[in-house]
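Page 42, continued from yesterday. The earlier attempt failed because a stray header line got pasted into the input along with the sequence. Redoing it now with the clean sequence only.
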Amino acid sequence: MSVQFPDGFLWGGSVAANQCEGAYQEDGKGWSTQDVAPQGIKGPVTEVPTEDNLKLTGIDFYHRYKEDIRLFAEMGFKVFRTSIAWSRIFPNGDETEPNEQGLQFYDDLFDELHKYGIEPLVTLSHYETPLHLSKQYDGWVNRKLVGFYERYARTVFTRYKDKVKYWLTFNEINSILEEPFMSGGIYTPKKELSKQDLYQAIHHEFVASALAVKMGHEINPEAKIGCMVLSMPTYPLTPNPDDVIAVMEAEHKNYFFADVHARGIYPGYMKRFFRENGIEIHMEPGDADILKHTVDFISFSYYVSLCETADSSKRAELEGNLFSGVANPYLKASEWGWQIDPQGLRYVMNMFHDRYQKPLFVVENGLGAVDKLVTGEDGLPTVEDDYRIQYLNDHLVQVGEAIEDGIEVMGYTSWGCIDLVSASTAQMSKRYGFIFVDRHDDGSGTLERYRKKSFHWYKDVIATNGQSLQRSN
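This time it went through. Structure tokens are written below.
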């Protein structure tokens, strides 16, 4: 039986401005937190941008977006997820007037997408707080960021109200727990950051996100505004009830973020956590009412699942996307140690649906791998990436299974639909795309674009609305 996807399903791909645009100081752009993180999410931070940071050039999407969008259109994209670089619009973040050149760039980008019938799906804050807000205010620890974000969101909602229907407020908002600088612009070193300040910063992000939902709907009642969380389903290592409780507590850490976005209140399990850890969230008058402006849909990234155990002697650590957990003995792993679990995608979609009864949108999923450029039958360079095709096929089959389970799924945007600079490692060699970009870890390369084998495969998947996907026997 073939996989059934609904009519109007939004097929596409996903990128982030800081990983592809480059042009880090062109047309009035200010510095962002990404510009001083040359080794990626887990690396050291520099005082000023350094030449070894591949993100300063990215894949030069800023100048080549028309060429790239033509390729996306050739694949048949219905939607393209990207982000707005906050520091292109407000270079320092605390100005009262926006940078017109930055606004015009995104006008042109969205116009180009619409020329091909591609809907933009836009993330307001994707791991790049203006550096001035990080250094001067300690990022989201400071309540003032709510006002700065509100001004930024109002500016872009108003400017693009006729061009952008789908919005996300923060990328992988729960990642602030592990990477407070990259995710929350918090300049205080992680080891010195108190739980009180961390969770106060999270509260400020919740308020800002809810304000964005409120004003976005006021500016354009047709807009659909979602949250975006890093999903990482966790399984008990054994049936031991202690392991099951360890899983529950681990998953609470992530569900907390979607719970507040989807339900508009703080859950009881977090109130207990706050009591037991001496945390008192300061709420200003009106915050509780603001939080009730809940999101229209839940979007999420999915790359890996984890196991959890209460037995510390069995904690062989596995590095995932930001979060670490216990390795699953039944799963194989990618070249970067990320365990591959297609069924985990169906599982987490069912968990989200059962919990929130809101539409879901898979906005990141993909395989990072070292790709080898070869000469194709047409004489042009290509990549024979059957491993990526298999990975994506198996995950999309599970999206189809979730739809069969009765879940409303808006769409699917594979991560890094064109090769870009990795967020976690700042490498080019960790490639996700359907399109190979000739740039390398040492910064060399022509930046030429080449279609991989997966390019043609995904084109067929979209053209058949998923009918070409292969179920395993």
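Notes: Residues 54 and 443 are 7 Å apart (CA to CA).
Reminder to self: strip header lines before submitting.
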